[in-house]
Amino acid sequence: MSADIDCRFTIIGAGLAGALLATLLAKRGWQVDVYEKRGDPRIAGYAGGRSINLALAERGLHALRSADADAAVLQRAVMMRGRMVHFADGTQRLQRYGKDDSEVIWSVSRGELNIALIDAAESAGARLHFDRRLEAVDFDALTVRFIDDRDGASSQVDFVALLGADGAGSALRAAMGARADLGERFEPLGHSYKELEIPPAADGSFRIEPNALHIWPRGNYMCIALPNDEKTFTVTLFLPNEGDPGFDTVRNGAQARALFERDFADAVPLVPCLEDDFERNPAGLLATLYLDRWHINGCAVLLGDAAHAMVPFHGQGMNCAFEDCVALAAHLDREGDLSLAFAAFEAERRPNALAIQAMALENYLEMRSRVDDADYLLQRELELQLAQRYPRRFVPRYTMVTFRRLPYAVALERGRVQRELLVDATRGRDTLDGLDWDWIDAEVRKRLTVLETEH
Ligand SMILES: Cc1cc2nc3c(=O)[nH]c(=O)nc-3n(C[C@H](O)[C@H](O)[C@H](O)COP(=O)(O)OP(=O)(O)OC[C@H]3O[C@@H](n4cnc5c(N)ncnc54)[C@H](O)[C@@H]3O)c2cc1C
Q1: What is the pLDDT of the chain when averaged over all its residues?
Q2: What's the confidence (pLDDT) of residue 22?
Q3: Which residue lies with its CA nearest to atom 21 of ligand 1?
Q4: pTM above 0.70, yes or no
Q5: Which of 56, 64, 210, 378 is the right S-S partner for 106, CB 3.0 to 4.6 Å?
Q6: How far is the C-alpha of 423 from the C-alpha of 311, rounded, in Å?
């Protein structure tokens, strides 16, 4: 973007994507103002929102590196090597995510991450305005109106370009939708979640293996637990909205305890405040948001959850939102005109958002019902062997999504081809002994091209 074009940016939302985008744009010397509906979390304390902690993977880390924010974030992150699966019979098994400790994910606190990014944005020169909730946009006069929810005061500012990082319930998206048909479709999953806590042990240490993402898969529902640096775990119970069990039948603390005693027995002693946590914490809804269009000419563009909220089962919503920030900053750098930059951003990112949304939905099924299934475990065993035998051709889909940065759409397509191959090679078998390796080698070469090294 040439310096003589008036490219002042007005970012809506100082959440994860908004604060990172502000940093990237301010570092390029552009004027950046960020408006956030909540108070400054550094003064008022972090007001929460969605999950308490999140899994940070390579795509997100790469984006943080480009904002020089990775070191501050990793300092307090907890490494997770794999899934610790808690089977119904009380046994546990660690399923590694990657080949070794170079392929791990990180559990980070949403509040700490958001504060680190707000600090980074301010240091880079962005101006942050808290307690400013976007209320209305006038696309003809190029003005926006904000409300301070503490006293109802209203303020108005003019803008050149609005960048919408105001999350799944985006007010900017609603304003854009009133102006042009964005083709919005919201698909609820029919399942919701509730958070509970595993406190530290009496000696102050973690109560269960800290370097893992714990999963209790139970078919149509599940629990997971991610570690926090203060030696606690945040447990998330995912249940259908209706059914047995479902949030319509498990409605209070006593019913939650009965469910845990029946289905998550080894977790019961770990969650001493089960009833209180269950009754105090709200159930969060899960849904996928699809839009045909993310921008209005050179005036406004959406990114992150505002453009493509997804279900959380691949742990990629934030990672994808961070990738959006890097991509949008690069398109703004490259193009001489805002509408071209927004169009190029949407053309690059929309197919990839659709791909990770699809993979996130598929992963729910995998986490809650396949990680303890014999066919799945046999296919996974072969997958690991093929990944070693063909490191540049056969890369497990989870690895492509989590530890590499190749486009999500490529990961989805190659993952489909690989899955078919694993199913074909293991059909009717219960062990890998006696596999026809000549056939498998020929099929791998025929079906999968060599991946570029930078991927
Ligand atoms: C249970 C759960 C677990 C998850 N786990 C993971 C995970 O492990 N890994 C991962 O990568 N992702 C995960 N995600 C997804 C991740 O939380 C989101 O993708 C991410 O928060 C998106 O960032 P964002 O900045 O686009 O939106 P948000 O983080 O929602 O930020 C939006 C910001 O805009 C502000 N805002 C809203 N409305 C207005 C307004 N009108 N005016 C001004 N400001 C406004 C909000 O206050 C907020 O600060 C999870 C999500 C859930 C629900």
Answers
A1: 94
A2: 98
A3: 318
A4: yes
A5: 56
A6: 26
With 90 as the cut, is the pLDDT of residue 391 above it?
Answer: yes
How many residues make up the chain in this entry?
455
Query: Quick check: 316 and 356 in contact, CB under 8 A?
Result: yes
- Give the residue, 183 or 2, on which the prediction is more confident: 183
Supply the DSSP symbol for 46: -
Indicate if ligand 1 lies below 6 Å from the C-beta of 164: no
According to the model, what pLDDT value does residue 4 have? 44
Q: What six digits make up the tokens of 81?
A: 């090597």
| pLDDT for the residue 255 | 98
- Taking CA atoms, 182 is separated from 175, 179, 287, 289, 357, in Å, by 11, 9, 18, 12, 18
Question: How many CB atoms are located within 10 Å of the residue 157 CB?
Answer: 14
The answer to whether the CB of 359 is under 6 A from ligand 1 is: no
Q: What are phi and psi of 137, to 5 degrees?
A: -125, 135
Q: Out of 37, 53, 113, 316, give the residue to mutate to test ligand 1, the one with the largest number of ligand atoms within 8 Å of its CB.
A: 37
Torsion sign, CA atoms 177, 181, 183, 187: positive
Q: What is the DSSP letter of 336?
A: S
Helical axes 16-27 vs 317-334, angle rounded to 10°: 30
Say which residues have a Cβ less than 8 Å from residue 376's Cβ, sequence separation at least 6. Answer: 366, 370
Residue 311, SS3 per DSSP: coil
User: What is the atom index within ligand 1 of the atom nearest the CA of 193?
Assistant: 1
pLDDT at 3 over 60: no
Percent helix / strand / coil, the chain, rounded to 5: 40, 20, 35
Question: Where would I find the beta strands (DSSP E) of 177-311?
Answer: 185-198, 213-217, 222-227, 233-240, 284-290, 295-296, 300-302
The CB-based long-range contact list for 431-439 (8 Å cut-off, 24+ gap) reads 431/378, 432/378, 432/381, 432/382, 432/385, 435/382
Tens of pLDDT along 325-351? 999 999 999 988 999 999 999 999 999
CB of 293 sitting under 6 A from ligand 1: no
Tens-place pLDDT, residues 100-124: 999 999 999 999 999 999 999 999 9
Give the DSSP H/E element, type plus range, for residue 63.
helix 58-66
Label residue 346 exposed, middle or buried (CB < 10 Å: 0-12, 13-18, 19+). buried
